[in-house]
Amino acid sequence: MTETARRSLARLLSESGAQGLDPAAVTFSGADDLYSGPFQSGHATGVALAAAILAARPERALALDLDHAALMSESYRHVLLDGQSVAAPRDPLTGFYETGDGRQIFLHVNFPHHRARALALLRAEPTRDSLQQAIGAWKMPMLDAALMACGAISAPVLMPQEWRDLAPALPLVSIEKIGDSAPQPSDSLRVVDFTRVLAGPTCGRLLAELGADVTRIDNPLYPDLVSYRLDANRNKSEVTLDLRQPEQRADLLALVNKADVFLQAYRRGVAEALGLSAETLCVKRPGLIHASLSAYDEGTVFAGRRGFDSAVQAASGMALVHGEGTAKLLPTSPLDYAAGFLLAFGVNEALHRRANEGGSYRVHTSLARVASWLHTLRHEHTPPENAERMATMIATYSQESITPLGVIRHIASPKF
Fold first, then answer.
1. Are 201 and 342 in the same domain?
2. Quick one: 259 and 206 in the same domain?
3. Is residue 202 part of a domain?
4. Which of 12, 307, 340, 378 is exposed most, by the fewest CB atoms within 10 A?
5. Catalytic pick among 218, 260, 309, 336
6. Is 22 a catalytic residue?
7. Can you give the three-state secondary structure of 346-410, one letter per residue?
């Protein structure tokens, strides 16, 4: 398992064009068998995390436990605030439903605005029975398109082969030089984090842990869950901006013009409409690293649609593999966390290139790319559940931090 992880790390570094990074500097341990299921979530999360840290600290050795990395792929569930759990349970309406043409669709309604949009479209009561009755009157493609158009979150449940036929083969991380500038050092980094929920904020959190000054832009229209905020937005300063207001949009642009890195994780068209595309910002701020993360990729039938980790699990066939033919979500969120760490790797590699040769860079990854990768990372035998070992691991890898909201206990990052 550990040698396989090192080979995956070497492949990731090679495919991204990283120079001077030695995968042998990372010592992997652990069997990645903390969770019962076919996918090696610790492998994916651990390799992505190792790459990000290695790119930032190439002169230091790193020891990384794959079981610790697996635990990090659901770390928001283990956050305690002043001794109390803040993990909100999944909305009971979120889940899988059968459509009238014998297909299945996944509906994500954990956030109130997505819940309201889905119920309004379907004219359903807020019960699973009412939703199932309404959904059963639709054919899956028409329903999925209608949910997408109204701003709800859904995904068709696909077989792995269907996903492979639709998803192009892409590198895990794309790093592209898109403009010229003089070489700039990579110390005293300033990051503007215009992301929410888990994947994008996880990137910003890791950059902050590696020493960057990270400013998070809070969206007053769509607040994050408390557990997400405490898990993925530690060690950041925060500015609340309503970007519908021109003067507050100008405040954001002023922050970006002084930054080294801009993170954004909104669907296609949102950043462009706000004047926050890579092309626009890198002209105004030569040498900027513009890093973006999306659920799906351009050039696919899913391009531009909203999505979260769980929705991509459904669309990619992971849910059917995990449930052995019956759609079932994974016990962790490996797409979110691995994608966040991969984006941090891309940022750190782009900063290295900027320091040596100058330039502005566009960095991108997606939850869909991680899903395709995880299909290649399967256990030969499904590990058994072990609640006692899980409790021991949580205790071993937890630490306390002081935040403006109080004392939080959370899963720690590896020591580096």
1. yes
2. yes
3. yes
4. 378
5. 336
6. no
7. HHHHHHHHHHHHCCEEEEEEEHHHHHHHHCCCECCCCCCCCHHHHHHHHHHCEEEEEECCEEEEE
